[in-house]
Amino acid sequence: MFFKLFCTRCVLLRWAVAVIRLFCAAGILFTADGAFANIPGGGTGTGANVTLVDNGSTVTLANGIVSILCTKSGATINQINYTYNNGSGTTTTQLLSGGHNGGQLYWELGGFGTGGFTYTLVSNPASNGGNYAEISLLSASSTNGIMEVHFSLLRGSTGFYVTAIWGHRAVDGPQGMGETRDNIYSGSIFNWMSVDATRNRLMSVSSSAGAIGVFGAPVECSLWTNGIYSGQYEDKYKYSADLGVQRVWGWSSVGSGGLNVGLWNISASTEYYNGGPLKRELMEHIGTTILNMHNGSHYNMGTDGNFASGEIWTKVYGPYFIYCNNVTNTITGTNQPAQALYNDALAQGAAEQTAWPYYWFTNANYAAAANRGAVTGQIVINDSGNPNAAAANLWVGAMQQPVTSTGVYDFQQWMKPYQFWVKTDTNGKFTLPNVIAGSAYTLYAFGPGAEGTFMSQTQTGGNPPLLYNLPASPFSMTITGGATNTLGTVTWTPTRVGATVFEIGYPDRMGDKFRHGDDWWVGDIGPSPACPSPIWSKFLEYPFDFPGGPNYVVGQSRWTTDWNFVQPIVTDSAGNYNGSTSTITFNLAQAPTNGAQASIYLGIASDYAGPLIVTVNGSNLGSTAGVTAAPSGEVSTGYFPWYGASDTTIREGINGAFSDERLTFPGSLLQAGQNTITINMRKGGYFANHAMYDYLRLELTGYVPPPPASVTAYAGNNRVLVGWPVTPGATSYNLLRSTVSGSGYVAITNGVTGPVCGSGPVNATYLDTTAVNGTTYYYVVRSANPTGTSTNSPPSSGPAPSAGLSTSAPAAPAGLNVTSAGHQSVTLNWSASPGANFYTIFRSTLVNSGGGSSNTLSTIILNNTTTGTSYPDTSPTDGSIYSYLVTATGAGGTSGNSAAAIAKPLPPAPATTPGGLTATPLQATNITLNWSAVSGAVGYVLQRATSVNGPYSLLGSITETTCTDYGVGSNTTYYYKVTAMNSGGTSADALTTTRPAAPASLTAVPGNTLAILTWPASIGAAGYVLQRGTSSGNETNTVATGLTATNYTKLNLVNGTTYYYVVTAVGSAATSGNSPEAGVMPYSALPPPIASSKNGGQLTFSWPADHLGWRLVMQTNALGVGLNTNWVPVTGSATTNLIVMPINPAPGSTFFRLTYP
Q1: Binning pLDDT at 50, 70 and 90, where does residue 1088 land?
Q2: Residue 861 and which of 177, 624, 794, 828 are 20 to 30 A apart at CA?
Q3: Burial level of 1039, CB count in 10 A (0-12/13-18/19+)?
Q4: Is 852 helix (H, G, I), strand (E, B) or coil?
Q5: Which residues touch 824 (CB under 8 Å, ≥6 apart)?
């Protein structure tokens, strides 16, 4: 490894040593030509003088390597000219050329300032020997705060620094800070985007061509229809990241026509971001855009940007580095130069961190090194239910509580204070460097070792709406500039109700340890670019991976494959958004004792309007006596996680604002034998609704884990390898050994720890090196937790160690291959390794980088108990790409990895064509398609044409069996194809054409031997067909065709006969269904003769049959009253021509006549 370190100031020498150590530890190679990171971060190198030229409306800063052109009025950078030599002579490239809007760095001010800027020269290089230039641009309003931008350039630096300062003054009124950021529209030469190690891929420069919108997705989501990612989905949300983790991101120009140069954003510190270390924001996206989000409230974090009138606040964002780099043009291709540029940018990022805070930036609002101190300590977790709880890899942070006018007391929501976060080492030790001097700091911690949050003191006015723990002696911290605050041991005692019965995951506030926790941002790929999958994001995979919802069986399932990272809405075939349910089943050897308490802890990594109903053995905990819930409270219709506005699924994230809940209930709800817990995310109605999981745990007082179901022992040379299946809730295991099966067992070791049940490995192992060759041994194992110890497991068989057995690990398995890859299944085979007792199978998820390689997203253990040479993986997702490895283990050790085998599981293609396809206009420009579901289909591909023979254009893919095509022409006939698809192939096409809507109603008015029929017009109808029948539902007689009007009079009907009519609309190529039925009975309009007769006590009236529909009416008025009032219909007379009725002698006289209604 070679370095050139050029220093003109002695202060840089101490940095050089630290940086060299850091680079060597990272294993990053550098060439001697200085093309890579050429100074130790943030310092002054050698080279040409820095110059500054004021051009009036613009100003140019240059140092012979980088030249930037700033437009004063908008504080924009409109040119970044980079001069370099990577093997073809000295070249200068304008890195913004051809970018969006001409290429520029511009600002979004969040409502602060005026938008216009005033220029000030801060440091003139002509006055400091050409070492340094700095300019300031200020946007100040009368009552809406200020925003100030500084651009800085140093001698020898391969980039420039940006600093933004926001302020709210005593004269400013009440105000909320909106989204603030800088945006770099880099040039069209760039084609490789690097967010992190996995989202590091070749990208198209623009989405202006070759992409279409996506049904049911945000408008930002597109389906590529050409290029290397044709048939795949793209949107900017795929490239969000946690600001507390991300330090380097940018674009490279590589491959054919590429220049082997890069442009990067490098943040030496994350102290100025909001929302804690897991605050997620967009980093970059297609269009060669690089973003630095100073303030935003996405993912429901950093939302408290509200300022009261006169509230004084200032925050410095930066300086951060806009870095230019290059690699030699002898590195060819796309992937290799892209990775070389990215690795160099990472190295430069590490160098920048060692130089923080920058000595050369002086501002009244910026804390220099002398005004900063450090905090050191060691977290120790004292968990009464888990003696193995470790404080390794915790996030530890220091923050001062800000002024709040909205009652916000959670650092996840704060945007005003500076924040200082680091990770603990393997022993829980931490050092928080460069904390700005001040008092009343609170120490926070969270992470894998304990659920909830550690907080060193309560807060003024309120506390976070989360489960948190305080130390026995709460404390605050005062930071003194130049000093270290040594805390010593800080003990975190998490809340416990009882021993762990089971746990799913571990508490790191993310969903990344569950199924699709690695490829959450990767859309599915269809069988061909012309037949894309409808799964544009992995949360939509849920109903296909888990058709009835996850059913997690404790002791059998593993959370990496059998528990989904998110519980989303489930879309049915009609397009309705419905809730979803996850189920957990587990066994108890015996019922809880009287008075026992149980508790479910739910860690929620993100939630959007997703209330959770939790039931235990059918009892809804929201309506069961004796249940307590905190912090939100449980109700029968589901508790809402405190933060329920994080649209993480549609923003394609793996975490958002964190919430948690503890539900404590009587142990009597549990029983001996099988128990069931269900979690129902009940709220549908919107495609973003979800609950994203972080960690689940059931606790029970008095619980002791069961013994392992079996023990297996493998003989070695003076040793025995012992294995047993891990048990739920066990924190350790005790091993006992005997030379007689069934008796005489003596403990050989206690406190053996194994994998957590469900984490992946099925077995725990122990190597007994006290075994003696030639002696037969039998082993039993007891499970233990802080409550007690189980009985003995069944004994192992009796192996006898032998001198003839190898003391070396077996060779890596050879010949690993995929023998089949079908629907959600992959079968592996390999050759036996001599000396192997069992094999461990690993699986990695891959994603195409577009540059001729694949990125590995994660690696999990599928099984570590396989004794044969084949393994069936029944947990992959169809269409995903996996890499498998196998290792061999014997009493002598474990081999290296086998060669990898790549598999892509594919189901059989759908066998049938979508049936019953119709296309019906709903409005003049909207057409709705409907068809029948096809077994085995994941989705349906929609195509449209204006001719039956095409060409057909791709509209997209959906999972439903109905779709409305909006915005079509009002006088055009359209032809549609619908094809059932899954990742394995497609069905034959179903074809239909535009079908007009059936007339919405039909009215029939009778007349003399006629009926007058009218109906409303149907969209898309060119004409109408009228049909008739003489019984309801049997309109088989065509009365008229080719009707263009919406009315028709049918003549020559028989009076007194009931006729039934329907009308259908005829389009240019298809006919609608029937209208509603209308019945009508014609009648004669001539007054009919009426005959009457008297027979005993009855009167008989009759009239001609062709006057059916006329009715007999009567009245009993006295003669003086008159005959034209009080007529009453005779019951039943309207449907006949003969009435017989009794004589009523009571009235003095009765009069009758026939009328037509």
Answers
A1: confident
A2: 794
A3: middle
A4: coil
A5: 545, 874, 875, 876, 877, 878, 905, 907
pLDDT digits (tens, 9 = 90+) for 942-970: 999 999 899 999 999 999 999 999 988 87
Instruction: Give the tens place of pLDDT for each residue, 168-223.
Output: 999 999 999 999 999 999 999 999 999 999 999 999 765 555 889 999 999 999 99
Number of H helices, E strands in the chain: 4, 83
Residue 858 in this model has a pLDDT that exceeds 80: yes
CA neighbor of 560 nearest in space, from 199, 863, 888, 820? 863
Same domain, 777 and 862: no
Cβ contact 1002:1077 at 8 Å: yes
Please say whether the beta carbons of 1012 and 1002 come within 8 A: no
Q: Are 304 and 320 part of one and the same domain?
A: yes
Res 1106: pLDDT: 76
Sign of the alpha-carbon torsion through 1037, 1039, 1045, 1051? negative
Q: Answer yes or no: is 808 within a domain.
A: no
Rounded to whole angstroms, the Cα distance separating 44 from 39 reads: 7
Residue-range definition of the domain harbouring residue 923: 918-993
From CA 1155, how far away is CA 1090, in angstroms rounded? 11
**Statement: residue 412 has pLDDT above 80:** yes
Beta carbons of 139 and 113 less than 8 angstroms apart? yes
**Residue 184 forms beta bridges with which residues?**
105, 290
Count CB neighbours of 954 within 10 A. Answer: 18
For residue 847, give the 3-state DSSP assignment: strand
Same domain, 599 and 471: no
- The one-letter amino acid code at 654 reads I
Structure tokens at 680: 């129902």
**pLDDT tens per residue across span 718-744:** 999 999 999 999 999 999 999 999 999
Is residue 753 in some structural domain? yes
| Long-range contacts of residues 255-258, Cβ cutoff 8 Å, at least 24 apart | 255/191, 255/192, 255/202, 255/333, 255/334, 255/337, 255/851, 257/189, 258/189, 258/191, 258/192, 258/334, 258/337
Greatest C-alpha distance within the chain: 137
Q: Which two tokens stand for residue 1044?
A: 């263009």
In the chain, how many domains are there? Answer: 8
Interacting residues of 125 by C-beta distance below 8 A, sequence separation 6+: 49, 50, 51, 52, 131, 132, 133
Please tell me whether residues 140 and 275 are part of one structural domain. yes
Determine how β-strand 893-894 pairs with β-strand 881-890. Answer: antiparallel
Boundary residue ending a domain (993, 1028, 1053):
993
CATH number of 948's domain: 2.60.40.10
Element holding 26 (H helix, E strand): helix 13-26
We report the CATH number of the domain holding residue 474 as 2.60.40.1120
For residue 186, the domain's CATH number is 2.70.98.10
Task: Let me know: does 856 contact 845? Beta carbons within 8 Å.
Answer: yes
Examine the domain organization and report whether 273 and 382 are in the same domain. Answer: no
Q: Are residues 1023 and 974 in the same domain?
A: no
Spatial contact of 681 and 580, defined as CB atoms under 8 Å apart? yes
- Phi and psi at residue 1107, to the nearest 5°: -110, 25
Q: What whole-number distance in Å separates Cα of residue 642 and Cα of residue 597?
A: 25
Say how many C-beta atoms besides its own lie within 10 A of residue 690's C-beta: 29
203 and 144 in a common domain: yes
Report if residue 361 sits inside a domain. no
- Is the alpha carbon torsion for 608, 179, 216, 1067 positive or negative? positive
- Say if residue 392 is in the same domain as residue 460: yes
Q: CA nearest 1001: which of 1018, 977, 1021?
A: 1018
Which CA distances in Å does 812 have to 32, 815, 837?
Answer: 39, 10, 13
Report the DSSP beta bridge partners of residue 926: 923, 966
Residue whose structure tokens are 């049938």: 912
Q: Which residue among 739, 771, 789 closes a domain?
A: 789
